[in-house]
Amino acid sequence: MKMYLISDNIDTLTGMRLAGIEGEVVHERDEFQKAMERACEDPEIAVLLVTEKFGRDWPDLVNAEKMSHRTPLIIDVPDRHGTGRRKDFITGYVNEAIGLKL
């Protein structure tokens, strides 16, 4: 099982390659959709990393793949510009999940 990255910039891909994660860079919606479909059909890919920009720009594509496949696990990762999430994202996520304020 392996991890695979679909990125919108070469810098993020270069950094992930240093960690042993292969991937590809795409810029257009149709390129991203085809890359997601290829990755989701590959039985060797257990975790699919996509940069947060794709989740913001084309959430319908990301959510459609998440809902239609059991594997791979699809995770949004920050790119070289950092995260678009608020600073208390993890705390808020846990609060929503368990229904208690931490």
Task: Please give the structural blueprint.
Layout: E1 2-7, H1 10-18, E2 22-25, H2 29-41, E3 45-51, H3 52-57, H4 59-68, E4 73-77, H5 89-98
Parallel strand pairs: 1-2, 1-3, 3-4
Question: Would you give an account of this structure?
Answer:
With 102 residues, the chain is of the alpha/beta class. Helix content is 47%, strand content 22%. It has five helices and four strands. Helix 1 links the parallel strand 1 and strand 2 (22-25). The longest helix is centred in the middle third of the chain and has 13 residues, at 29-41.
* CA-based shape: globular
Class by helix and strand content?
A: alpha/beta
Q: Spans of 5+ residues with little confidence (pLDDT < 50)?
A: none
State the helicity in percent bands: 40-55%
Number of strands: 4
Order of helices and strands: EHEHEHHEH
Main pleated sheet? 4 strands, parallel
Tell me the β content: 15-25%
Spatial strand order of the main sheet:
2-1-3-4
Output the radius of gyration: 14 Å
What is the structure about, briefly put?
The chain is of the alpha/beta class.
For this entry, give a set of tags.
single chain, 102 residues, alpha/beta, four-stranded parallel sheet
